[in-house]
Amino acid sequence: MTSSGNEDFEARMRASFARQRVMQTLGAAIVRVVPGEVELLMPFAPEFTQQHGFLHAGTLASVLDSACGYAAFTLMPPEAAVLTIEFKANFLAPARGESFLFLGKALKPGRTITFCEAQAFASEGSSKKLISTMTATVMTVTGRAGIEQ
Length: 149
Fold this sequence. Notes:
six-stranded antiparallel β-sheet, Thiol Ester Dehydrase, Chain A, 149 residues
C-alpha cells in the first residue's frame, strides 16, 4: 500500500501516537510502521489486569483500537486526523504473558472510511499465542474544529 501522497506518514503517526496519554500509561510502544500496517508492543503490568490476573479485555481493546486506527492513519492525507467509528473484538484466550504484540492492518482504505483488523499476541519466552482479534471501521477527519492530526 502507498501512503496517499503523504511521504512523512511515519513521522506524523509517531507524533500523534506520542500524544496518546492512554498508550503512555499502558506502556505501549511502536515497533514497526509501514503504509497500512503498524505493530505495537506492550509489557505486562499487573495494574491492567482483571480479577484472575489476566490482562483486562478493555486494556486489550484499547491497544487493538490504536493499532487499527494508526494503520489507517498511515494512509491518510497529511491534513487528516483519524477517529474510530466502531469496532468488534474477539477474545480467544486468556491474556497471560510477559508482553503483548498488536498488529494492525488497513484492509480496505477509502477516502473517508477505512476498514481495519488487528491481532493481539501474548509472548512468554520464545512462545507467541494469538489471544484477541479486532475489526474496526475508522474515519478520515479533515477541517473539523478541535480534531487535529
